[in-house]
Specification:
This protein has 152 residues and is an all-alpha fold. It has helices spanning 3-20, 25-37, 40-50, 55-71, 74-77, 90-100, 105-126, 137-144. The protein has eight helices and no strands.
């Protein structure tokens, strides 16, 4: 899903949660930021691949890739590797969940991630993408074997 939608929907949920539950300004800020900053892994991938640290160029790169990807047939998409987005997988969330027992604020990070991932799942369903890519990055790694890089 595009960043602007993550920000807008994250904000709406933040306002709702703040008004419905007894949470602090800081906790709701952490929730809000987590609902879209989870996508920092996109920037990290761009910086590694392109050796360029421009956030603006990173956003343009992924938007252009998305446009090209969507134009491919479903069969054609299966030939290409998927990026490994380290913050978008259960492998990252489980340690955070365990840490949330010791640091209460981390639960708000997880709630923000949850909202983000639900939106990503909706996006995957809309574009007929497999949901595993937003659930397990180890599985993405395994399914990438014998596939070719998608050069956008």
């Amino acid at each position: 899903m595009l960043p602007k939608y993550h920000i807008i929907i994250g904000f709406i949920f933040s306002v709702l949660i703040y008004n419905l539950f007894d949470v602090s300004h800081f906790e709701i800020l952490i929730f809000f930021l987590s609902s879209f900053l989870i996508d920092i892994d996109h920037y990290i991938i761009y910086a590694i691949i392109k050796k360029n640290y421009s956030l603006k160029n990173s956003m343009k790169y992924f938007l252009d890739c998305r446009k090209k990807w969507i134009k491919l047939s479903l069969e054609e998409r299966r030939k290409y590797k998927k990026h490994i987005f380290i913050f978008h997988g259960i492998e990252f969330w489980i340690p955070l969940f365990i840490m949330s027992f010791y640091f209460k604020i981390i639960i708000f990070v997880l709630y923000g991630f949850f909202v983000h991932i639900i939106l990503d799942y909706i996006d995957c369903l809309y574009f007929k993408e497999p949901l595993y890519q937003k659930f397990s990055q180890i599985y993405v790694y395994e399914t990438n074997k014998k596939k070719i890089d998608f050069n956008c």
